[in-house]
Every structure is written in C-alpha cells, then in structure tokens.
Amino acid sequence: MEPVDLDVIATLARWVASAEQVVALTGAGVSTASGIPDFRGPQGVWTTEPAAERLFSLEAYLTDPDVRREVWQRRLHNPAFRVGPNPAHRALAELEHLGRLHTLVTQNVDGLHQAGGSDPDRVIEIHGTIHEVECLSCDRRVPAGPVLERVRQGDRDPRCEVCGGLQKSATVSFGQSLDPARLQRAHDAVMGCDLFLALGSSLVVHPVALLPRTALEAGARLVVVNAEPTPYDDVAHAVVRSDIAATLTTLVESVRAQPV
Ligand code: APR
Fold it and tell me: pTM, whole model, 2 decimals?
C-alpha cells in the first residue's frame, strides 16, 4: 500500500465538503485493522483457504449437516464477536456527525460501523449481520448470543425453538437473495448522491458491485480507496491505494478544517 498523499486527500476533502449527498460503500477492507480478515486480499479467507467458500453456499448449508456444523463452530469463534471498531469505522462515524455522510452501505456483517458510532438508521447492512440468527423455515429472527451459547454447550446444529426448522446467521450466503427493501434503499441513496466512496471492497460481488456504476450513471463522482485493483479503477474520479484507516482519518481531519 502507498503512503497517504496529502494533495489527493485535500482534493477529496473539497469534494466531500462541497457534495450535496455523500454515500459510502464499505467492504471487508475497513475491518481488517480490527483483526477480521477480508476475503480476497493477500491474507483473505478465500485466498488462504479456497475450500472455505463452500461454507458460504446456501445450497451446501441446507443439504449438508457437516457444513452446518462447521459453520456454527466458525461462527462461535468469529473474531467479530471479540474485536472492536478501528479508526476507519470511527472516521466514517465522524464524517456522518459532521453532516457529510448521508448513507453508509456496508457489505460487512460485523456490526463495527454501529459500534464505531455510525447511526444505525444511516447504515444499510446489505449482506445482513452475524449478530442475529434467522430460521430458514418460519423466518423467526433472534439475537445470536443465546443460539451461540447452545452451540458452545454442544448443540452442533441448533434448530428453531418455535418450529424446529434449520437456523442460520442472518447473513446473506451465496445463492441467497438480498433483502429487497435494503437493496432498494441503498439504490435510492446512490441514485441521489453526487459523491460515492467505495472503501475497502474488491467490488466484484453482485448486485452490490453494481452500485458504483449506478452512482456514475446518476452523475456522481466515484472515489475508490482500496489496497488492490478493482473493476472500477479506470472509471473512478480518484483511486487511493493507501491504508483505509490512515486515508479516512486524514480525510476527516481535512474535511473538518474546510472553510464552512
Ligand atoms: N486498506 C486498504 N485496503 C484494504 C485493507 C486496508 N487496510 N485491507 C484490505 N483491503 C482491501 C483488499 O485489498 C481487498 O481488495 O479490501 C478489499 C476487500 O475485498 P474482499 O476481501 O473481496 O471483501 P468485499 O469486497 O467486502 O467482499 C464482498 O464477498 O465474500 C463475500 O459476502 C462477502 O461481503 C462479502 C463480499
């Protein structure tokens, strides 16, 4: 990753300060500094353990009890239940508190944006959350804690306490549809934005990966902050290859210093 370029930050800060509506899209890259690995980066989950991708398939989860047992064990030990927000999360919360961030669409399921001070009403968890569990038969949603305690106590495939159906973390698996209302809300925010910040995402997973294009078609400026190349680098108005936390922290300081 490159060092933060203060001239670029100054430009971005002017764009943020003068925008009517800023929307941010975050990916796993904003949580790596908290100790949660991303998926496709050099130390990513898929990069280091390609077979693990099967654990994120809805079809495998529904049909293979061994997959469900493995998923529950991994969920039990997921670092997201033990770590806290990092400066990237806090910088985005500060941007919102400065009135400079309208909506934060996150692909992350760790809840760290809210833990870092972002208003939950302005955060769209487009791929769901690990902090809740849903029944795949009756749609009942419950906090994840008590279900994970059942797993800790030896229940390897905890069923719904109402209907006995299979349960799963309330996260979107491959082969599973996104919540239409959340997707519509994200789309509407992007259609109304004039500055779109794509932060810490490889921008390859659809339909979320279409949001930057929607922003461009709506006439917005597109800024990509990511350690590695993304499909949007050639059409973005700015591409920053620096560390997310350092970039966002410096950006917020510069926005705060902007003339009112
Ligand atoms: N600073 C800058 N960039 C970083 C940093 C950092 N500190 N840490 C990681 N990155 C970059 C990586 O280089 C990578 O390109 O963040 C990007 C994260 O990309 P992915 O691992 O593909 O994560 P994401 O884009 O969020 O994945 C989207 O795919 O696996 C599914 O549902 C899952 O929500 C996830 C979706």
Answer: 0.97
Catalytic residue, candidates 127, 131, 187, 206: 127
Gap between the Cα atoms of 246 and 163, Å rounded: 48
pLDDT one-digit tens code per residue, 163-212:
999 999 999 999 999 999 999 999 999 999 999 999 999 999 999 999 99
206 is annotated as an active-site residue: no
| Mutation to probe ligand 1, out of 177, 201, 223 (largest number of atoms < 8 A from CB) | 201
Domains belonging to the chain, first-starting first, are 1-36+85-127+177-260 (3.40.50.1220), 43-82+129-171 (3.30.1600.10)
Enumerate residues lining ligand 1, CB below 6 A: 27-29, 32-33, 38-41, 44, 107, 127, 200-202, 205, 226-228, 243-244
Tokens of 237: 């108005």
- Other beta carbons within 10 angstroms of residue 188's beta carbon come to 11
